[in-house]
Design goal:
By secondary structure, the protein is α/β, with parallel strands linked by helices. The chain has 3 domains: about 1-65; about 70-185 and about 330-375, 3-Layer(aba) Sandwich (D-Maltodextrin-Binding Protein, domain 2), CATH 3.40.190.10; about 185-325 and about 405-445, Periplasmic binding protein-like II (D-Maltodextrin-Binding Protein, domain 2), CATH 3.40.190.10. Helices cover about 50% and strands about 15% of the residues. It contains 18 helices and 18 strands. The protein has helices spanning about 1-20, 25-65, 85-95, 110-120, 135-140, 150-160, 165-170, 200-210, 220-230, 255-270, 295-300, 340-355, 355-365, 375, 380-385, 385-395, 405-420, 430-445, and strands at about 70-80, 105-110, 130-135, 170, 175, 180, 185-190, 215, 235-240, 245-250, 275, 285-290, 305-310, 315, 320-325, 325-330, 330-335, 400. The strands form 6 sheets. A 5-stranded mixed beta sheet has the order 2-1-3-17-6. A 5-stranded mixed beta sheet has the order 11-8-12-7-13, with helices on both faces. Strands 4-5 form a two-stranded antiparallel sheet. The termini are far apart.
Length: about 450
């Protein structure tokens, strides 16, 4: 820059010398001009140098990496069967990232079913990082138990994971959690020596009846939507950015709802039908609608006759064929708000790592949890898993489970009780009345 300034000054001086012979007034004018140019160039050079110095300082400051995140304690809650895996994974993470080694990380066994309730009851005493089921996201946000995902992590999470898992981790337009699995749903396990054709619900019941075997299915809220969503009914709740419920969209009180509820009643009337979805509690069964968490139990029970499939179709009272539907869900990992920004950064980094592609794949290999990460889902071992394959096929006919008020599940359980009780043998008018009452109650919940 100094060389350029000197060049301009020399050029101006030479111009003044050449024009000196044209008269003193012209010479003075040229000299004045040269002096003015020199002053301007000098001033510009000084300003530019200052700007370059300031920019360099800002760049250096922006690119400076934090090498010491201090010390502290982090508490992590996960399901009992992944406690050891999580401890080993965190130890490896701290070894590979010494900048986080100043934190003592404690892993405790608190399952997804209890974690949300515990966090909502006492956020301060709760874990810094915890696993929870997707239907609890709105409640946790409303309770102030979830902090927004670190902005630098949002793009990777949205691009790398199954869409349903990303939707489940989002409230309003804000991402609040890290997807960990995409295996929360149900499908059909069956004994292939008894059920030779698992494609229709009527056929499964007939084959089970003929063999004197049981067919297990839960008719409560999480499972009963298999019938209602299958006939095209809708039941969703809207919530604001704070996780508070603001409205409900529901059309169970309709011809579609009537077909669904009548099918539930007919299914429950079969002598093969048994209410329930826990393979560990089931007896003498040849078919059960259950999830991946019971794959090992079912394998042990069925042995060489073990088989899996998507849910069957059924023929409704209107003569039309319907594919059984349901929810698809996932396990999420959340971070609670922190007063210490450095600790929050460590928690975000750890949550991102515990839900990364490789860790999801390692967790599948260790305990069988189905990944939400798209690359991990494409792994050969994951694709060869019969239970996960059946669930994946079923997911094509399901919807992501959104947020539902706690009292919805209570009312849905009561409806299931009516299906196996008071609604057996009921007229269409009585069934319609039950649907109307159910919709009025459930749609008003907030």
């Amino acid at each position: 820059m100094k060389k350029k300034m000197v060049s301009v000054l020399l050029t101006a001086a030479m111009g003044a010398s050449l024009l000196a012979g044209c008269g003193s007034e012209q010479a003075e004018s040229v000299a004045d001009t040269a002096e003015s140019v020199a002053e301007t160039v000098t001033e510009t050079a000084e300003q530019t140098a200052e700007a370059v110095t300031e920019t360099s300082e800002q760049t250096a400051e922006a690119t400076e990496e934090i090498t010491d995140y201090g010390t502290g304690e982090i508490k992590v809650w996960v399901a009992d069967n992944v406690v050891d895996f999580t401890k080993e994974t965190i130890d490896k993470w701290q070894t590979e990232n010494p900048q986080y080694a100043g934190y003592t990380v404690t892993v405790e066994a608190v399952g997804e079913g209890d974690a949300a309730g515990n966090m909502i009851t006492d956020v301060t005493a709760g874990a810094d990082i915890y696993g929870f089921a997707q239907d609890q996201t709105a409640r946790l946000v409303a309770a102030g138990a979830l902090v927004e995902v670190a902005p630098e992590n949002v793009s990777a999470i949205e691009n790398d994971n199954a869409q349903g898992a990303v939707v489940a981790a989002t409230v309003g337009d804000t991402l609040y959690a890290y997807p960990m699995t995409a295996d929360n749903g149900y499908f059909l396990y069956y004994d292939k020596s008894v059920v030779t054709d698992p494609s229709t619900l009527e056929g499964i019941l007939e084959q089970c009846e003929a063999a004197g075997k049981n067919f297990y299915m839960d008719m409560t809220g999480w499972y009963q939507v298999a019938f209602f969503f299958g006939t095209g009914c809708t039941l969703t709740y809207d919530s604001d950015s704070d996780g508070n419920f603001t409205g409900c969209t529901m059309d169970y009180d309709s011809d579609k709802g009537l077909v669904a509820l009548k099918e539930m009643i007919d299914t429950a009337s079969s002598k093969a039908y048994q209410p329930g979805s826990s393979a560990g509690d089931a007896v003498n069964y040849a078919a059960i609608i259950d999830g991946t968490w019971d794959a090992g139990v079912v394998k042990d029970f069925l042995g060489d006759n073990y088989a899996c499939a998507k849910l069957p179709t059924f023929t409704g009272s209107d003569g039309k064929e319907y594919q059984m539907s349901g929810f698809n869900g996932c396990k999420l990992l959340g971070v609670k708000p922190q007063e210490d920004e450095l600790k929050l950064a460590v928690c975000d980094a750890l949550a991102l790592y515990l839900t990364s592609e490789q860790v999801q794949l390692d967790r599948y290999n260790a305990v069988g949890w189905g990944p939400s990460n798209l690359n991990a889902q494409a792994d050969d071992a994951v694709k060869a898993d019969e239970a996960l394959s059946a669930l994946s096929e079923q997911f094509a006919y399901t919807i992501p489970q959104g947020q539902y008020p706690g009292d919805y599940w209570t009312n849905a359980e009561a409806l299931a009780g009516d299906v196996t009780g008071s609604l057996q043998g009921a007229s269409d008018d009585d069934i319609k009345a039950a649907l109307k009452s159910f919709q009025e109650t459930v749609s008003a919940l907030r």
